[in-house]
Fold these 3 entries.
Entry 1:
Amino acid sequence: MSGTSSQTLSFTKPSPSLPAGTGEDYWSLDDFISSKERIPSMVEENISFQRLGHICPHTREAHLLSKTKLDLPLWLAKSLNRKEMISITFPKAYKESMRTALSADPTVIDLHRNGPYFYSVGLSLLQFKLDKDRDKDEEEKERLAKTLIETFVRRLRVIMDSSHNYYCANTTNMTNQLDELEKYLFSLGQEALTKQIQYERGHNKIIMASSLTSNSRKRKRN
Amino acid sequence: MDFNEIEFLAEKELVTVVPNFSEDKITLVTGDYGPFNPSMPTTVPLWLAVSLKKQQRCHIQPPEWLNVDMLTQKKQDEKESELFVEMPSNHFIEIATILLDNASDDITQPDEVRALIKDISDARAAKLKKGIVDMVVERATHGKVDNLTPMEVTSVRSFLTQSLDQLHILRSHANQHATQT
């Protein structure tokens, strides 16, 4: 848990940036939310969890037996995987079929439905043990990392173009297909555009009283 | 930085005014200005010039680049060059906007000048965006952004720095896996 992110804790403006360190970012709410992502897992051979049968909805056993398949949240799957108690397969958004689609044209994929923390969860998956064979495991991770970068770069172009051009328009059409991180970047572009246009149109010339003073009760007495 | 703050900085640039009143030297924090004599040109900061102009106590002599000929030339240069062309002032958009808004009667062909300024800034903005895309997509390690004005930097600052930050994080994670094998 060595999150060495430069982000400070801020509740007013969420900034779903990726964790900078190799671990999670302790203070990031988005990181916290993304860790609930379900990971298809399977209990390893020769391992069983006593009296935990009830966490798997489709079995009536009292114990969680070996080779049971179930979805576990990312945070749990990660530590169990590290102790080699479970093996995992990729969630749907990272499977081969999805990757083919992403390499064909990432700009048309709905990453909100397939995420909405596509990149953040993707980075976490890189820390799993994906295959018992070390070489295969590394190969798989390299391919996943490549997909993540390619997707981000190619989508970023569209996001930049649209975020610097939509003004006073309904952007939900655009943003409802974006991953949370992309949405954040989109909003940054929009903010800059709005400020620039407001400056150009001279909206800033009118100096307004701070809302704090105009709402203050003390002054309204007379 | 904000656009308002950049405009504030631009107002410190000096311009020449022709006053129609007499006044001794005035001492301001940034320096002494004046003395003011009718029909004797003198240099003052832009904000002071605008203030005097509003009281109809001076004419502003527009900077030598603020005319159709010079700007047409700059526009041509900007279109032909692949890199950003050096502009006559780091704050050319702001100065032109302020002068056109407050002293358009001192500028010859103000409408044409306004259109040219807009054309130049649009051409530069398009160039900047294209440069960013090339930089991100083609994995260039650096971009040459000489002669970029503070205004233009501000328009892409937050988006660009954050995007590159996130991209860097993605890449460093990926590289970790490449080196571990």
Entry 2:
Amino acid sequence: MFSRILKQTVSKRTLTSSSRLFQAPTKVNSPTATKLAEVTGPDSSLIGPGAQPGTIPSNLDQATGLERFEMLGKMEGVDVFDMENPIFEGSGTMQDPYLVPTYVGYRYVGCMGKKGEEHRPYWLKVTCDEPARCWHSGVVFLGKYVGAPEHSHH
Amino acid sequence: MKLKNMTNKVRGNMQLHPFHLVGPSPWPMFTSFSLMNLALSMALTSHGYMGHNYFMFLAMFVVFYSMTLWFKDMMAESSYLGDHTMAVKRGMNQGFMLFVVSEMLMFVSLFWAYLHSALNPNVEMGMMWPPMGMEAMSPAELPLLNTMMLLASGVTMTYAHHALMNKDRKNTLYGFMYSTMLMVVFVFCQGLEYSFSSFTIADSVYGSAFFSATGLHGMHMMMLAMMLAMCTWRVYNYDFTNTSHVGAETTMLYLHVLDMMWLFMYMVMYWWGS
């Protein structure tokens, strides 16, 4: 038994924890996505083709996971993390609140005031249930659930 | 986000923000303890509280061990898991800049210590610099060779960087290998120079300031040799792409900063100060 273990260790890899991961067969479910629409989730659709032997790969060859997802978005002009201009609906009044897109039912928003009456950010927890109003400038926000219906906790 | 084609169901399954929230890892704690061991065993050994240096070498080994495993995790997170988005890379670059600034301030304090005595040698030193009876090294021998090697490493580094950006694997590998070798040879020559030195770190303020400053620089060179070796391996392993190679960028920045540092050190401590 000992000699068998020794043989395995020597013939394969000596770092056993890594070797178990490396030797497990990788399941490939969906092919590599070439555009955002083909991404099927945090899975094999976000694994690139890899480098050609003997070359320095490009990021499109090599990037995986979230890094690749971000890149696919950038190629289509989409900010996948919703950081640059997340709020683009509504006008901030009680009748027409700013709609804050959320995948989890709430989102923290730092209200900076109205145009011409800016103030330092006051943080509000904006939910989908009722409008949140900045107590300094009176600007109104409301969460807008944009995730899939079955993900909603409401 | 205005999703054009992708379903919200898919988007909701992915991480919503670009930041990398690292998972639980033993390495920060493990590295801290092994560094404490190293510091303690080094101090106790060099002050003669221990009859041997086995513990020092054991502690050194454990530090290298934890570094290796921590770096392995980071390489997996960046190259294989894709956790390093633009925001993460920007954060790491900024963090490294702050690290370099704090390192430079450490060197500033050692220059201050050196010049404090060198500019006003007091009567105990014989009112001269190097102090009376001290024999400084010649700046024209090994130190000059070391200076030339460091300047050459700047050249090979830029060679490697441009080859990397232009997707030339062979020359990238050569560039990183030459730079690694120049660092190793530098450290070796510095070791020779130390062993041929006529004074030690315990010989007057001159010896203390000289060996503190050049020794700190020498330790950085050892670290740089390791970083460059790691970069060489990562190029060999297809980890770096032509546009995304934060590890290489930080190594290059470090090399150039320490090269400049050495030039000042050479001019002030070896040339002007001898």
Entry 3:
Amino acid sequence: MAECGEILEGFLCPICKADLGSEHQLRIHFQDEAHKEHQDVFKSLKDVFEKAKKKILKIDDEVYVPEFSSNVVPISEPHSSTLFRFEPQEIGEFRCHTAYFRELRNKRLERYTAETNKLLIRLGKLMLDLPVDPLKRKTHEQAIVPWIDDRDVKLCPSCARSFNMMRRKHHCRLCGAIMCHDCTRFLELSEAKKMINMSFGSDGEPNEGASTSIVKNFPPFRPLGRSSSNNSLNSVLSLVDAKTGEQHLRLCIHCKELLETREKLKETRNLKPIISQFYERLQLYITEVDQLCTLYCKMCQSLNCGEKTHTVVEAQELRGKILTLAGSIDNLSKKIAILGTKDVENPPKGRTLQLQQNIKIATNYYLKDRVIGLPSVPTELAFKSLQESRR
Amino acid sequence: MANRGGAQRPNGGPGKICQFKLVLLGESAVGKSSLVLRFVKGQFHEYQESTIGAAFLTQTVCLEDTTVKFEIWDTAGQERYHSLAPMYYRGAQAAIVVYDITNQDTFGRAKTWVKELQRQASPNIVIALAGNKADLANKRVVEYDEAQAYAEENGLLFMETSAKTAMNVNEIFLAIAKKLPKNEQVSGAGSSGQTRRLVESEQQKAPGNCCK
């Protein structure tokens, strides 16, 4: 009895006999092991079927010569696993990467935000008292963002093409880097104003006034000409757009992209879904109808009493107005109800659709309640007789 | 499986080798570990420490032309380890449910273990009921006949044993070995624990088939 020597004790795995140290660990381990075992069985069965299939289809290759005699399959052999690379695998271990992802994402976002904020601050400084004169403007720009020395840059850092007479060097007004014309973009001053107005909202008025005055004072088009000093033709050229005559700043594509991304983000944040835009208009109409209806009811009452404060024509006009409004309300509610239903790929479903239909139903009730039950205006004849009877 | 090599050697000669998983269940301090220790090592400790988690031992017995290797899972009897038991009796071909003849509660507990095994273990499991501490007959509370009747009712093997005096210890294991199906084992299927064993025994048989 050679093998009775060892006695294992502890939180032993019933399958692999490893001591897991604690009940909890054992349970976890056991689940994994049992799971693996099932897969093994499954695998060995698969193996047998696979071999049978091969045999039937006569696609045995020399590399793998299976002995298809017994269902005894060496499950522990490493190469058997490669055979099943393409079989659907059962879900194994779960790992949560959200925290890691968040960490990475936060870092990135922070960097972008910091970068964008820096650009916005610079843009604000640039726009503040931007001189009209091109020369002065250049010194102003350089005072805020130091420009890279022309001599340091031989190739465009963005597209790696060399500079020559045709492909001239341009400075980004926000980061000071040099790029070729193709790798720079223009930012209209009006656009820039909008960007910084939004970001320095509390500063308010002065920016607005100052920058508009520049645009106004600046001649819309300035004939090209080489200035006597060392400033290049291009820096003058780039001040004004030849087509629209509007002033702009030259930015490298990277800075422009950052600013544009921010603008887009702002836009999407402020954008209301179409349905709520429709609904707001609907509500507007409804309050209007409410007011008109109260007025109209008072009118009718006084007319029916034979009073002379209002005329029949007035009341009829008002009634017409209410009916037109009701028509628009009805149309709008119908529009809301079928909103997006023609979209084949992504039609509204579930609660969205229900909401849309409920709006229509509610509107219908409202119209029935409010508009259809309106008292009628007495005809001119009836009104006269009413007046007489009053006397 | 550490002992695979050894299984081929025993003096049983050319006969079959069968491997069975056996599990011991029962209330705390009825003598499960002592029974196994007596069976496996022939030892008895007056102050056997209580088992933590479970213990694993193996013992091989020879039956005529068959060598039966028991893989014995001795479970901890303490209440807090009861939830681990299903892990160990899962796929077991045999079980010994132990009670203490000087303690009525342990007999009650043994009955619940039997019930649980009948309900949840492999359907063909061989269950033996062992009334341990038979050497303390003067303090007996559970009558032999009562236990015998219960065992018969439920189709269990039954013996009163004593790990201290070694009475009926080897006998009960042998009785189980005899009752276990020796050839049917191959078609047993079910849990893969059996499949793995099946693979092994086939492998062990293989040289015998081609060389002799």
